[in-house]
Amino acid sequence: MGILSGIRIVEFDALGPVPFLGMVMAGHGADIVRIVRPGAPVMDKLAGGIVLHRNRASVELDLKKPADRDRALRLIATADALMEGFRPGVMERLGLGPEPCLAANPGLVYGRMTGWGQSGPLAHRAGHDINYLSITGALGAIGPADRPVAPLNLVADYAGGGMFLGFGLLAALLRARQTGRGSVIDAAMCDAVPVLLSLFHAFAGLGSWSDNRESNLLDGGAPYYRCYRCSDGQFVAVGALEPQFYAELMSGLGLDQALYPQDDRANWMMAQEAIAGIFLTRTRDEWATHFADRDACVTPVLSLSESFSAPHLLARGVFERHGTTTMATAAAPRFDNETPSSTAAERYDADQAIARWSR
Q: What's the distance, CA 27 to chain centroid?
């Protein structure tokens, strides 16, 4: 069940954005079969696999063997879409590139996920999230003044990779439904990250963004958009961008806003020091309680484990425990009761799934 119920996708086992997107789409009802090479590590028994591989069947195929390659092609022939995350040319060498797949299924949406893209001087080079962030300028803009900081693998890998591939798949599926013609999608993280940076490119073009970290509006330079240490060594996050929220922040801290005008960049450092000194007088949780009823955009910086018991997230059912140690997240976004999404980390029998596809 779900908004994507009836959509069939063949997913070739990969790392990063491909299984992430598979998890997201399966959570919304897409019928996905993962093709896994024999002898591959059984990720389903590890924390990452338990979460990222949930809600879909897996079938082991040795794609170097003609019989297994033909079996994969039969699955593809009945699918709406395919997604793979190999380096350019790998699927072609296996005999499963776009040409034979679209010959078998003219309406197929063929999604290709890479870091560097299908062309260009780096197309055949290895890379990871941090590398795609580095050459697009994103990594250089994130972190304290003295060094860049990798923002986990959330930006290039999951946002720039999984979400852009997902948009491409769904857009091409809409066109295929209208025209009967399939598409080949070249989803590259090094293409997507600059799109995510569009606002900052605009700021820079207007002369309102500096290449120096911690000197800008949204990179920790502004005293009203950064994190502050509290007396217990924990932190609060302050996001009081709009004037009314800044006024609430200063009032809540007992500071005279007239001494620290919000838009006076020349006095940002002085304002930071004043605000930092006040936050050091109480613990993080004391500040969270203090600002609970104020629209000052002040929230506690929680650890991953603490987030599982955050009252707002509990109320919305954001997390569920899988087994004894692993937390799984509910599908997002949410749809109405007519199109429920799955939060269960379910397991599917591969033979039953393939038999269902054959009907």
A: 15
Q: Tokens 């079938």 sit at which residue?
A: 59
Helix (H, G, I), strand (E, B) or coil at 10: strand
Does residue 201 fall inside a structural domain?
A: no
| Cβ partners under 8 Å of residue 153, min gap 6 | 16, 128, 129
Whether 157 sits among the annotated catalytic residues: the reply is yes
As for how many domains the chain has, the answer is: 1
**Of the candidates 337, 343, 353, 338, the residue with the CA atom closest to the CA atom of residue 33:** 353
43 lies in some domain: yes
pLDDT tens-digit readout, 227-244: 999 999 999 999 999 999
Set 68, 128, 186, 322: catalytic member: 128
Instruction: Give the tokens for residue 255.
Output: 């500071």
pTM of the model: 0.91
Angstrom distances, CA of residue 21 to CA of 168, 239, 328: 12, 30, 15
Q: Please indicate whether residue 285 is annotated as part of the active site.
A: no
Tokens matching residue 153:
């693998």
Of the listed 13, 31, 129, 157, which one is catalytic? 157
Host domain of residue 103: 8-196+336-358
Rounded distance, CA 84 to CA 93, Å?
A: 14
Could you tell me the pLDDT band of residue 138, with boundaries at 50, 70 and 90?
Answer: very high
Instruction: Spell out a b/e string for 38-68, using b for 16 or more CB atoms within 10 Å of the CB, else e.
Output: eeeeebbeeeeebbbbbbbbbbebebeeeeb
Q: Is residue 344 part of a domain?
A: yes
- The band of 342, judged by pLDDT with boundaries at 50, 70 and 90, is low
Catalogue the E-assigned strands of the chain.
8-12, 31-36, 57-60, 81-84, 109-114, 183-188, 225-229, 235-239, 298-300, 319-322, 326-329
Q: How far apart are CA 8 and CA 80, in angstroms?
A: 5
- CATH number for the domain spanning 15: value is 3.40.50.10540
SS3 42: coil
